[in-house]
Structures are given as structure tokens and as C-alpha cells.
Amino acid sequence: MSELEPQTKPLALVTGASRGIGAAIAEKLAQDGFHVLINYASSEAKALEVVNRITAAGGSAEPLGFNVADSKQVDEKFDWIAKNRGQLKVLVNNAGITIDGLIVRLKDEDLDKTLDVDLKGAIYCSRAATKTMMRAREGSIIQIASVVGEMGNAGQSAYAAAKAGLIGFSKSVAKELGSRQVRCNVVTPGYIDTEMTGALTEAQKEAILRTIPLGFFGSTADVAALVSYLASPASRFITGQVIGVNGGMYM
Ligand code: NAP
């Protein structure tokens, strides 16, 4: 890490960047010229693979493990970032889990886990980031929610509650911090080709595809392209918005 010169590159943190959508976002932000902090909870080896891919392509990144659901760890890591890496310009709250099941069988512990990671984790990281962003009068916070938080989904009530909560939270932050030029937006992916959708049967895939006007599953790059725009000054007049990447599934 000693050869890094993060002060020469703007700094971005992507939570849950060891695979899937988070990894694609991290790679895109690195291409855009950011030094990217690759967060993970337990998948250190996978996070290092993402770092290696980025550096091999000429970008700049480093791993930063912490559990977003632990507010003490979050505060400690954000303090470390401010002292050792400088001003955070972009925070992407992407870390998320799903524990699916019908509402009648929803266990307290599964509800708590889902809200702790998907909602409270994003709130802890946003709170920690805004402290320095407010002082710098610059910053872009991007939440990765879900189309499920907008339209609901049978068997995903806890997940939908967490993702819908993120939308109200983000609009409040956008209103509070707009005068400080800190922006906060929500990206809501629909069905994205990941390990998760790879596990669907052909019949399930066909049924889902019939609900998507564009007729195909999105890619992680489709989500990363929107995040890249929201992270850049090109989106300087956009805050408090919920933007779907869903092939028209919800409009
Ligand atoms: P994924 O492949 O399951 O990856 C989840 C990432 O989050 C991993 O890097 C994981 O790291 C990390 N993570 C989980 N719990 C964490 C914690 N407590 N602290 C820090 N990191 C943690 O997920 P994905 O499919 O790419 O989805 C990414 C985001 O997009 C999620 O918020 C998801 O809800 C949303 N989304 C996905 C889809 C889709 O079709 N895939 C659709 C709509 C929305 P570890 O392995 O180290 O835990």
C-alpha cells in the first residue's frame, strides 16, 4: 500500500465489492480514475481478486474489510479512511443480503439480519461519510436498493422493507445536505445476471422475462454505468432521486 498515492486520485468506497454488482461498480469507478476501497465482510480472497483485476488494468484499489452492520466498526474504518487516505468523494452502499420466506414464517432473527445489513448498514456508512463530506462541501452517496423496494415481491417482505426504507432515508439525507453540495441518490436494479439469477430454472427465467419489456436480464455493467454517472460531476444537479435499472419491469 505504500506505493499508493491516493491524494492524487479522488477516493471512492464501495461496500460489498468482493463480487457481483459491487465488484462491477468498483471496476468501473477505478476506470473512471478513482482510488477505490473494496469493502467486504468475510470474502477477503475474492476482494483481493477484484483489487488485482483493477491494478492489472492500470487502476488503483485496495481491500478494506468491515461489517457494515456493526456501527462501531463502521465509525472506526471511516476515521481510518479520513486520517490515512483523505477525503471520501463517493460512497456506494451496495452490501446486501436476502433471506427469502413468507411473512407468516418470518423469524425475528432473519428480519433483524436483513434490516441490520441492508438498511442500518447503509445508514451507518452514510452517517459516517457525511461528517467529512459536509465539511468538504462535496460528495456523492449512492444507495443500491432494489426494484423490490418499489413494487414489492411475495416472499421478500423483509428485504422489501429494508430497500424501501433506504429510499425514504436517502431523500431525507438529500434534503438535509443539499445546501452543502452533498448528493444522495438511489439506484434500484431489477433482475441482474448474477449468481443469484443463474440459479433460476429455465421455466422461472421465462416467466420473469415476460415481465421485462426489454426482454432480457440486465448485467452488472448496466448498474455500474449508472453509478459511474451518479458519481461524476455530470450528475451535479441530480439528488434525492430513485433511478431504476430494470428493463422497464417497473415504471
Ligand atoms: P452478492 O453477489 O450476494 O454480493 C454481496 C456483497 O455484499 C458481497 O461482497 C458480500 O461480501 C457483501 N456483504 C454482505 N454482507 C455484508 C456486511 N455485513 N458487511 C459488508 N459487506 C457485506 O450480491 P449482488 O447480487 O451483487 O447484489 C448487490 C446489491 O444489489 C445488494 O444490495 C442487492 O440487494 C442489490 N440488488 C441485486 C439484484 C440482483 O439481481 N443481483 C437486484 C436488485 C438489487 P462477503 O461475501 O464478504 O459477505
Top keywords for this entry?
seven-stranded parallel beta sheet, 9 helices, 7 strands, binds NADP nicotinamide-adenine-dinucleotide phosphate
Plain-language structure description:
The protein has 251 residues and is α/β, with parallel strands linked by helices. The chain is built from nine helices and seven strands. The chain has a seven-stranded parallel beta sheet with strand order 3-2-1-4-5-6-7, sandwiched between helices. Helix 1 (20-31) crosses helix 9 (220-231), helix 3 packs parallel to helix 4 and helix 4 runs parallel beside helix 6. NADP nicotinamide-adenine-dinucleotide phosphate binds at residues 15-22, 39-43, 67-69, 94-97, 117, 121, 144, 146, 189, 191-192, 194-197.
In short:
The chain has 251 residues and is an alpha/beta fold. It has 9 helices and 7 strands, in the order βαβαβαβαβααβαααβ.
Helices and strands: which structural class?
Answer: alpha/beta
Encode the helix/strand succession as letters: EHEHEHEHEHHEHHHE
**Low-confidence regions:** none
Our estimate of the beta-strand percent is 15-25%
Report the total helices. 9
**Backbone CA Rg:** 17 Å
Categorize the overall geometry: globular
In total, how many beta strands?
A: 7
First-last Cα distance: 45 Å
Describe the SSE topology:
Layout: E1 11-14, H1 20-31, E2 35-40, H2 44-56, E3 60-65, H3 71-84, E4 88-93, H4 108-136, E5 139-144, H5 148-151, H6 157-177, E6 182-189, H7 195-198, H8 202-209, H9 220-231, E7 242-245
Parallel strand pairs: 1-2, 1-4, 2-3, 4-5, 5-6, 6-7
The protein binds NADP nicotinamide-adenine-dinucleotide phosphate.
NADP nicotinamide-adenine-dinucleotide phosphate is lined by residues 15-22, 39-43, 67-69, 94-97, 117, 121, 144, 146, 189, 191-192, 194-197.
